[in-house]
Amino acid sequence: MRILYHHPLHPLCRVARIMLAEKGIPFEPVIEKPWERRVEFLALNPSGEPPVLVEEDGTVVAGGLAVMEYLEEAYPDPPLMPRDIPHRAEVRRIADWFLHKFDREVTENLVGEKLIKRLSGQGHPYAPAIRAGLANVHYHLDYIAYLAERRPWLAGPALTVADIAAAAALSCLDYVDNVPWDSHQEARDWYARIKSRPSFRAILADNIAGCPPPRHYADLDF
Amino acid sequence: MRILYHHPLHPLCRVARIMLAEKGIPFEPVIEKPWERRVEFLALNPSGEPPVLVEEDGTVVAGGLAVMEYLEEAYPDPPLMPRDIPHRAEVRRIADWFLHKFDREVTENLVGEKLIKRLSGQGHPYAPAIRAGLANVHYHLDYIAYLAERRPWLAGPALTVADIAAAAALSCLDYVDNVPWDSHQEARDWYARIKSRPSFRAILADNIAGCPPPRHYADLDF
Fold it and tell me: Residues in domain GST N-terminal (chains A, B) (predicted)?
């Protein structure tokens, strides 16, 4: 069986899980705690970071960006990227935004400080980082609203990895209850659409021992 | 004329410049200082980050990862990615390593603290960050040596964007004279090969007013 090593609160791991589900590719999810730096996992990905996909023939695909592009190349149906080259660039621009810029400005400051530090025993949350994350998130939700007002999905007429990347990042933040949905109705409407897809079910069922999500996390009518 | 907005000390911008040169695509380079947050530039890339490529027909390709993949898709000859799908994943794994992991662990701590802070008027270098960057760089040079011992180029038999990404990142670090070449002969041998390519000439000619590179920076026999 195909194996995906992942961590539930890692946005790029969530991208891989959602893409696999959208494409109907069966896989066995195995939780990897990157801070344990397991020797067997480092042999699969020397950077020590999930996700890693191991195909049935032994092919190892290591790292979030590599897995994202690999899944689209190896399993093109149904497509999660357009065929038009400039349009593909737009999808990657938005995916990159949520997987790197949002990560640096929001996710690391909130999910990182509040939950990953605790799970990995790296000490207490750093209050100034949390304040920065809480301030920064509005700008990103406004940007989702800006895009969603102009296009059916974030990068154009169809669901793409741009939506999946943004939803993966936001869903991690929602797990720690730091998405101010009440003041961002348009972003909420867009998220409700992707949240209700069958490919999102496993994400909504995530429940880390000792750190449960808030009640609205899995609620489709949040 | 095709325009590339770039900053000389931004690794992903260097990737774009080297790829354009390897593929023989003419372009006009325009230096963008991202900390100025120019309104006209933000209209091209709302994230505010170079590189941005503007094609002659007005197509805008924004952001380093989008430009990297776009150039390979739009101008496939000569190829800088293999055709085999698992092998492409290996190229992206290594490129991702040098564009994100290396950036976080080394470039931000050294180029960021010593030069970008000064150019952008963001204060003085933070000594603990510099110490961390100086400590971390050895591990990455060892990893280049590990790969280069086993393969002609970092990701396999041919030059790919994996080599270009690693060389782009290292060349920024070399600009601030923080690559300990003397204790990393194998990484130096690999870098000498890519440094001597015609596509690297413009990189080696970079010279920021008031912050010149060390003498060996442009020397092919360093």
Answer: 1-79
Nearest residue on chain A to B67, alpha-carbon basis: A89
Q: Is the CATH number of domain B85-198 3.30.70.1050?
A: no
pLDDT in tens, B93-131: 999 999 999 999 999 999 999 999 999 999 999 999 999
How confident is the model over A30-75, as pLDDT tens digits?
999 999 999 999 999 999 999 999 999 999 999 999 999 999 999 9
B214 vs chain A: nearest CA distance in angstroms? 31
- Please give the pLDDT value at position A26: 98
**B126-165 pLDDT per residue, tens:** 999 999 999 999 999 999 999 999 999 999 999 999 999 9
Domain positions in chain A are: 85-197
For domain A85-197, the CATH architecture is Up-down Bundle (1.20)
Tell which of A5, A19, A47, A54 to mutate to test the B interface (max B CBs under 10 Å): A47
